[in-house]
Amino acid sequence: MSKDFSTREENFSQWYNDLVIKADLAENSAVRGCMVIKPYGFSIWEKMQAALDKMFKDSGHSNAYFPLFIPKSFFNKEAAHVEGFAKECAVVTHYRLKKSPDGKDIIVDEDAKLEEELIIRPTSETIIWNTYKGWIQSYRDLPILVNQWANVVRWEMRPRLFLRTAEFLWQEGHTAHATEKEATEEALKILDIYADFAENWLALPVLKGFKTPGERFAGALETYCIEALMQDGKALQAGTSHFLGQNFAKAFDVKFMNKENKQEFVWATSWGVSTRLMGALVMAHSDDKGLVIPPKLAPIQVIIIPIYKTDEEFALVSEKIIQIKKSLEKRGIAVKFDSRDTQKPGFKFAEAEFRGIPVRLAVGPRDVSNGTVEVVRRDTLEKSIYQQTDLENKITNLLDNIQQNMYEKALSFRENNTYKTDSYEDFKKILDEKGGFISAHWDGTSETEEKIKEETKATIRCIPVNNESEEGKCIYSGKPSSQRVVFARAY
Amino acid sequence: MSKDFSTREENFSQWYNDLVIKADLAENSAVRGCMVIKPYGFSIWEKMQAALDKMFKDSGHSNAYFPLFIPKSFFNKEAAHVEGFAKECAVVTHYRLKKSPDGKDIIVDEDAKLEEELIIRPTSETIIWNTYKGWIQSYRDLPILVNQWANVVRWEMRPRLFLRTAEFLWQEGHTAHATEKEATEEALKILDIYADFAENWLALPVLKGFKTPGERFAGALETYCIEALMQDGKALQAGTSHFLGQNFAKAFDVKFMNKENKQEFVWATSWGVSTRLMGALVMAHSDDKGLVIPPKLAPIQVIIIPIYKTDEEFALVSEKIIQIKKSLEKRGIAVKFDSRDTQKPGFKFAEAEFRGIPVRLAVGPRDVSNGTVEVVRRDTLEKSIYQQTDLENKITNLLDNIQQNMYEKALSFRENNTYKTDSYEDFKKILDEKGGFISAHWDGTSETEEKIKEETKATIRCIPVNNESEEGKCIYSGKPSSQRVVFARAY
Questions:
Q1: Distance from CA of B78 to the nearest CA of A (A)
Q2: Residue B185: exposed, middle, or buried by beta-carbon count in 10 A (0-12, 13-18, 19+)?
Q3: What is the distance between the alpha carbons of residues B197 and B200, in angstroms, rounded to a whole number?
Q4: Contact present, B290 and B356 (Cβ < 8 Å)
Q5: In this complex, which of B43, B94, B140 lies closest to A91 when CB atoms are compared?
Q6: In chain B, which among 123-152 make CB contacts under 8 A with chain A?
Q7: B79 touching A (Cβ < 8 Å)
Q8: B383 to chain A, minimum CA–CA distance in Å?
Q9: Does the N-terminal peptide bond of residue A143 adopt cis geometry, omega within 30 degrees of 0?
């Protein structure tokens, strides 16, 4: 643990990087662009996985596993997809190494060149739809509701821990349906699951919307997304769900016999969230004292620190702490008793704070005799003295309260940083001075979207679902517009 | 579902392959040597993962994640390791594709050649020890008890679903310790966990032992293993735990300050089990009617099939089934009500049997009026009529009983197929006629081990832990031997 790290004010980007590394979430590896997710960081990711996995299964999805490798030719089968994904890829060309002639080194064995290169999956639509061809003959085989948890690789020129790494972990759902309607409903159902997960687990309010054609997933007819706002006023795309139409079915010739005994192409969706959410978690909630983790995702929810001078006092205090720990654990709370004798309480307090543990308890000899316990909540750093009576209920309520408070704080931050403007000058000024989401009129053309992006680095994050229609004029071209869209600079 | 598959007697290998494919566990993919693990197969693997993961965590281990890629030079750092692993590997040489000059194809962009090739991890000792160097300074940083769930790639010339695939899923534990004693204890603790898991979850009796130097993991000072016997009399290595000494610490210069303030190299273990266990599960228990899955790993433990002629009967029967389902689910049993109206009961029975569902219930109108239910257990195919009263307890007991019975059946199979011989002629005859484990004297030399392997294809599976010492003569060389070792032909 270390506190010598930047503040958000000084340098948000440095603050983020310092925090991720020093709070033991992740670090850069010896392989450029690839990270090591450390045990503390991984345990948060595991909690995210468990929550999402349950939501997927409760809505009828199953997990499966498809190959890491994709034959190069597969990328060429779907025209839009190849443009988007067959570029910055890791390419496997050989399958053997051998000793160098002098015996000192190992070199690639040129005799072991693959006939066709294999690409490390950047996403799995192609290999999965090639597989689905064998699984689908009739409408009875549909729907297929499959998800996989996997690693994927997209070569990144400017990697950043969690936010943009060459290898990252994610889940990718790939579903197959008999009708367009069903596929669209599936894509929207997943969007709701993602939003629910972001709000109720990450304590992160999100805008649900759909992307403009220019921002769509390569191969999708519609990309739905959830967009969150970080503390520096930049947006972060936290999850996407794609309606793929029949594009991949056509590319891989996947047809089914419908109820009317006619051959038809299958309808598809795909959807994913990734370890990027770890970055969102940090940038949305943490502060200049360290991580702030929502209780539902905290590997340790309560840490108990003993205050003592003598061995006798330690024995006395420990007994009480173990009793408290047990009563909290019975309620399903993850508790750690920080019994190390190598560190002083002050160090332990700062460490617990830095690592974002939602609730910190301290118990000293006087607490034992008074029947009290000192309680500090991480989100507000507020200190209280609780009576030990009924402590498990009080702590359960406090954890709920912290989860809720973190959400509300993030929500009011977003509300305070969402602007509406009808002037391009004002638009640019907001972007430069404040950041945030900007709701503005747009003429609906890719040209205008591109121009605004070139001039301001702001992109259209989404067109909100259930957007209100409103007559207006495009802030850039002055042409008529029938609705506002949401702009921001983004990660 | 399909029953047109080989019997074990006719062709064990074909039976295995047919079963894996037709029971929807896995299939070959478009990429040679890589499999697709289908939802049904994957749900069994998930149950294995959950059980093992809990055992690891309960014994103090945490999960983390390390990069998929390993710089080629890392392999050269540990002499024995390079021999074992830097051969049949997938090699990444480029990081970009581009359009071919005619615009019709995509090709590897030769401008995007990596300075140093990256190897897809065949195992992660090198990248992990390179990382641990940054994590370890003092004895206070030890032990490190880390595991990762990951995919690995070892190019296979003769792939077989689950048993030998180019890409497979596994867990790999990598621990770092201050003393040799602690590392050895860790390796043995994991061996016990593996044996416990094999016996209590897979219902698979295993021999615990250690490998001869010739069969050790490349880079290990000692390889402990669990060895199981398949129904065709061949052995299968079901898990390994390695004591790595200070080999990787020396290769990556990982030292720590010990309590006496002296720099010392760190001691290491690594250990893993893989999707190979899925193959073991099939080959140990299944029969000519299909899969037989131990209840603790069965995604569906009880299937309920309605027997009816009219819609009224269906309504009547369904009501009772839903009631039974709920009462079983309350007890934590995974139940499926097979309510499809597109299939007849006979088909459903055969399908449930084929997919290895431990318990099948059938409920017809007469059962409703009599308060009965027809029960068939998959392991013995025994049929009974149960009174509905207290059914949840009866079924819970039946599932326990099936789990236990499967273990005992596998154990008596192993006992009936374990031989002791002092004659090489007899040894060869047993191998050819019966297979199984053969306990025989060996002179302790690699030369003899190699000769026996060349002549009979049998290998020394292990030297059992707590082996009895017994004076004898090597079956091959006639030289003196002080203990028997266990031979078998193996997967």
A1: 12
A2: middle
A3: 5
A4: yes
A5: B94
A6: 127, 130-131, 134, 140, 146, 150-151
A7: no
A8: 31
A9: yes
ipTM score: 0.96
Q: Which 52-71 residues of chain A touch chain B by CB within 8 A?
A: 62-71
DSSP B265-316: EPEEEEEEEETHHHHHHHHHH-BTTB----GGG-SSSEEEEE--SSHHHHHH
Cβ within 8 Å, pair B87-A65: no
Task: Work out how many CB contacts closer than 8 A connect A with B.
Answer: 180
Query: In whole angstroms, what is the distance from residue B394 CA to residue B375 CA?
Result: 11
- The boundaries of every CATH 3.30.930.10 domain in chain A are 12-67+129-285
What the block records as the tokens of B154 is 């070892």
Compute the nearest-CA separation of A431 from chain B (Å).
Answer: 34
CB pair distance less than 8 Å for B130 and A30? yes
What is the enclosing helix (H) or strand (E) of A106?
strand A106-108
Q: How many CB atoms lie within 10 A of CB A127?
A: 25
Q: What is the DSSP letter of A254?
A: -
**B370-386 pLDDT tens trace:** 999 999 999 999 999 99
How far B138 CA sits from the closest chain A CA (Å)?
A: 13
Asked whether the beta carbons of residue B34 and residue A75 sit closer than 8 angstroms, the reply is no
Mention every residue, 6+ apart, whose C-beta is less than 8 A from residue A223. Answer: A210, A211, A215, A216, A217, A240, A241, A242, A243
* Helix A391-416 / helix A311-330 crossing angle, nearest 10 deg: 70
- Rounded to 10 degrees, the C-alpha dihedral A458/A460/A466/A467 comes to 60
Q: What is the pLDDT of residues A395-452, one digit of tens each?
A: 999 999 999 999 999 999 999 999 999 999 999 999 999 999 999 999 999 999 999 9
Mean pLDDT of chain B: 96
A295-413: CATH number: 3.40.50.800
Measured CA to CA in angstroms, residue A115 lies from A67, B30, B476 at distances of 18, 14, 45
A34 contacts in B (CB within 8 Å)? 67-69
Task: Give the residue ranges of DSSP H helices in B91-154.
Answer: 125-135
Distance from CA of B473 to the nearest CA of A (A): 40
A38 chain-B contacts, CB cut-off 8 A: 64
3.40.640.10, 3.40.30.10, 3.40.390.10, 3.30.930.10: CATH of A12-67+129-285: 3.30.930.10
Nearest CA in chain A to B118: A31
**Which residues in chain A are contacts of B30 at CB distance < 8 A?**
67, 71, 74, 127, 130-131
Residue A220: pLDDT band (50, 70, 90) is very high
Q: What is the DSSP letter of A164?
A: B
User: How wide is the angle at C-alpha A336 spanned by C-alphas A330 and A339, nearest 5°?
Assistant: 125
Smallest CA–CA distance, residue A420 to chain B, in Å, is: 41
Please check whether residue A89 touches B, CB under 8 A: yes
CA atoms within 13 A on the CB side of A22: 22
CATH of B418-488, one of 3.30.110.30, 3.40.50.720, 2.30.29.170, 3.30.450.20: 3.30.110.30
d(CA A105, CA A212): 52
Q: What is the dihedral of CA B273, B279, B281, B287, to 10 degrees?
A: -170
Alpha helices in B97-218 (DSSP H): 125-135, 180-200
Give pTM, 2 decimals: 0.96
Contact check, Cβ <8 Å, B155/A96: yes
With H, G, I as helix, E, B as strand and everything else as coil, classify residue B218: coil
* Residue-wise pLDDT tens digits, A144-164: 999 999 999 999 889 999 999
Residues 296-335 of A with CB under 8 A from B: none
